[in-house]
Amino acid sequence: MLENKKIILAEKDIPTQWYNMQADLPTPLDPYINPRTGKPATKDELCQIFPEPIVNQELSTERWIDIPEEVRDVYKLWRPSPLIRARNLEKFLDTPAKIYFKNEGVSPSGSHKSNSAIAQAYYNMKAGTKRIATETGAGQWGSALAMACKMFGIECVVYMVKVSFQQKPYRKSLMQVYGANVFASPSVQTEAGRKVLEKDPNCNGSLGIAISEAIEDVVTHQNAKYALGSVLNHVALHQTIIGLEAKKQMEIAGEYPDIVIACLGGGSNFSGMAFPFIMDKINGTHKNLRAIAAEPSACPKLSKGVYAYDFGDLSGFTPAIKMYTLSHTFMPSGIHAGGLRYHGASPLVSAIVKAKLAESTVIKQTEAFEAAVTFARCEGILPAPESSHAIRAAINEALIAKEEGKAKTILFNLSGHGHFDLTAYDSYLSGNMQDCDFSQEEVNKALKDLPKIAE
Amino acid sequence: MLENKKIILAEKDIPTQWYNMQADLPTPLDPYINPRTGKPATKDELCQIFPEPIVNQELSTERWIDIPEEVRDVYKLWRPSPLIRARNLEKFLDTPAKIYFKNEGVSPSGSHKSNSAIAQAYYNMKAGTKRIATETGAGQWGSALAMACKMFGIECVVYMVKVSFQQKPYRKSLMQVYGANVFASPSVQTEAGRKVLEKDPNCNGSLGIAISEAIEDVVTHQNAKYALGSVLNHVALHQTIIGLEAKKQMEIAGEYPDIVIACLGGGSNFSGMAFPFIMDKINGTHKNLRAIAAEPSACPKLSKGVYAYDFGDLSGFTPAIKMYTLSHTFMPSGIHAGGLRYHGASPLVSAIVKAKLAESTVIKQTEAFEAAVTFARCEGILPAPESSHAIRAAINEALIAKEEGKAKTILFNLSGHGHFDLTAYDSYLSGNMQDCDFSQEEVNKALKDLPKIAE
Predict the structure, then answer these.
(1) What is the CATH number of the domain that holds B203?
(2) Do B136 and B87 have their domain in common?
């Protein structure tokens, strides 16, 4: 009798509630600050760009929030996602550690982003939204939202940073297959885009410009709302389905992890995997659990940033958020893990790290890809560059366990597949890939641009 | 209580035996003919390029053949694959038909090809093979074999048709991630390649040239063998795991299909899905089952070809095979479903069609892509161009069921995902895609090149 590799749940085992980390924080979150008034952003202000049910979730401190049946029904297209024991990787490393991973790459859009996209599209549909605008960089969020909008009959408009639009045409095509309108940003669709193009017709675009275009799109169209794929509390909430499923699966395996690992960009993926376990650390049932956020050396906000109020975007359009940040003016190097190139960490993740309930580790790009190739050769699955940071951190912990001779149980989240990232693998395999690290001095220079918000 | 979408089996439910269609043929297969001797190819001749256990399977008429535990163990990386009820598609079509599909796109290499690649790599390992050479066109077989060889510690050498090597760099990179040596064919690695390059340094290559290079590689290296991803009996045998799993899953759903559909290139995918059901048609338990091979209008061997001896490759290196063929000199148009561009149908599929145990339908490229986009928007999954031919055929049957008002049960195989085929989707969505059909006259012209083999 061979050993099992996968732990599979039935569709009926898809969790019926999301876990809200806000209920268990040692101290409540600091409010978002409206930069124009200098005062906490009101619910009405948030409702100008988000539908009310989403704003309610953003502000809620209820521990458990019901997942609507319609959302669970769409989740069933790919959920529950498998939990897999990486037995081949364990053997290759010759480690006494057990390595488990949750495979979120099985979603139609190829990453965990669909978990929140489906929920956001549903609540928008219920609130009467006819059009959702968003921005996307590498395109994972854009494709997840495009697919989600199609499921609930909502028009989807994506402003995609022009350099990605041109360099990653496949993500753009995938969004179009799902019926979305995709514009290279800066575009002529908006006043903000036209202004940029007037000054510089060849502008490559940036996430900051794309956010401005998406928000202008929302306020200039009827029944239009905005959607964001990371950072915010409601996104973290929706993603907890990952960790909640993983807990059930680990229980079936007769295990509880000593270490939980996920990569960190804006924070949605780390929140999703780690929060349901950190709940147990807070309530005392698993005090010794370690939760590790694997961040890229090109954008190390938890490890080298500060915990302070900052804007969510380069242009300062968004409310100021209390978070670990490298400053909204910090320009991360152009690493292939585009989803990790964000200057700040979600307020919930930041609060958890500040309270020493989670830790961070810094991974160099080449180390991440070395781990990715090892993983693909052992387990078959080609990981996304973002997820490869988590794999590297898991391998590092498994090798420490080997040195210590301890049979630790390690669980990491494979946030997505790398089928659209083979150019990056090519660069790694041909020896052309470089690391792009920042010194504390370089970070400190950007930190001078933090906004002055009275706390 | 919501309805289930997926029917998931446990790892212990992975079949323990493959089904050998040769056991149940109305008349035995005609032998392969050695073109140099004009006589049936002997076992010793076949063993020059294939390991003995594979040759034994090729010639076996045993009904059930055990799947080695080591092969089942690797299968567990992704098998059992899910059977999914396409409820959203049914609603969209407003059909009384139930549409089920088996998703083979969940394999690490992204298609059903891994089912045979793993088995072939295993038997080669047992037989002492140190190096496997193969050719690949679009790259699905090459990536499946590269991954399989890595699992069993065998060196993998892939001769990839140069035009694909250049136009589809992602498939090449994937093979390299799995550790394979990939050469653009014609290459300077072989005498055959060098000869071609001498005459035409800019030659784009062809599957025929690549086969010559792979076979030369085998005979000029120690402990080297050749591997083929379709057409042959042992490949069809390994693929029957698809249909055997699907039967178990349909039974759990309380169903038996009225119609089973798969696309047809060389025949491995159709064999895999259909043979275990055709067994029931032959033994009389399900006499009315219809098995439909969906072939592209650009390469309609079952519908417009003849049943005759022909070579497997353009250059006439391979033994002559009795099969439905458009002739080895037939040049299919450059459709995006590269995996369906083969002039012949596997001898087993051909025998089954000749005996009227299966039928064929011809699908135009644009019809296939229209179905693919509809499917992606309903079910989330982006299908491979090849698989889209099966989807089109399934939709056609579901619409006939609607006209007739009959609640038929339709089952098709989704042989792979389309993550590496977004250029093709781009071409379809932008309205630039064309159909490439052949008239019977054009086919008849090629058929004049059939070899003269006494039967």
Answers:
(1) 3.40.50.1100
(2) no
Query: Same domain for A296 and A413?
Result: yes
Residue A442 lies in a domain: yes
**pLDDT tens sequence across A174-198:** 999 999 999 999 999 999 999 999 9
Q: What is the pLDDT of residues A358-402, one digit of tens each?
A: 999 999 999 999 999 999 999 999 999 999 999 999 999 999 999
User: Which residue on chain B is closest to A379 by alpha carbon?
Assistant: B77
Residue A147 lies in a domain: yes
Distance in Å, alpha carbon of A28 to nearest chain B alpha carbon = 37
Residues A291 and A379 in one domain: yes
Residue type, A135: E
* Intervals of chain B under pLDDT 70: 1-2, 454-455
Q: What is the mean pLDDT of residues A139-163?
A: 96
d(CA A207, CA A317): 12
Asked whether residue A352 is assigned to any structural domain, the reply reads yes
**Which of A2, A249, A429, A432 is the best mutation test for B, with the most CBs of B within 10 A?**
A2
How many angstroms separate the CA atoms of B91 and B106, rounded? 25
Q: How far apart, in whole angstroms, are the C-alpha atoms of residue B89 and residue A258?
A: 43
What percent of chain A clears pLDDT 90, i.e. is strictly above it? 84
Residues B301 and B178: their CA atoms lie apart, in Å, by 34
> Across chain A, what does the average pLDDT equal?
94
Size of interface A-B (CB pairs under 8 A): 120
Structural domains in chain B (count): 2
* Residue B187 counted as domain residue: yes
User: Considering A233, A267, A291, which residue would you say is the last residue of a domain?
Assistant: A233
- Give the Cα separation of B191 and B197 in Å (integer): 10
A88-118 pLDDT, tens digit each: 999 999 999 999 999 999 999 999 999 999 9
- Whether residues B407 and B283 share a domain: the answer is yes
Residues of chain A with pLDDT > 70: what percent? Answer: 99
What is the model's pTM?
0.96
Domain that holds residue B258: 6-13+80-110+242-447
Q: What is the pLDDT of residues A294-315, one digit of tens each?
A: 999 999 999 999 999 999 877 7
Tokens of A4: 């099992």
Q: Same domain, yes or no, for B267 and B388?
A: yes
pLDDT at A1 exceeding the cut of 50: no
Q: Are residues B227 and B320 in the same domain?
A: no
| Sign for the pseudo-dihedral over CA of B402, B406, B409, B410 | negative
3-state secondary structure at position A65 = strand
* CA pair distance A403, A139, nearest whole angstrom: 40
Q: What is the pLDDT of residues B31-62, one digit of tens each?
A: 999 988 899 999 999 999 999 999 999 999 99
Tokens describing residue A222: 């009827």
Q: With a threshold of 0.90, tell me whether the complex ipTM lies above it.
A: yes
Higher pLDDT, B40 or A331: B40
- Residue B426 is nearest to which of A6, A72, A173, comparing CB atoms? A173
Provide, as residue numbers in chain B, all residues whose Cβ is less than 8 Å from the Cβ of A169. 422, 426
Residue A170 has its nearest CB partner, among B417, B422, B429, at B422
In B57-200, DSSP assigns E strands to 64-66, 83-85, 98-103, 131-136, 155-161, 181-185
Residue B6 Rama label (left phi>0; alpha psi -120 to 50; beta) = beta
Residues A102 and A163 in one domain: no
For residue A64, give the 3-state DSSP assignment.
strand
Which of A233, A256, A275 is a domain's end point?
A233
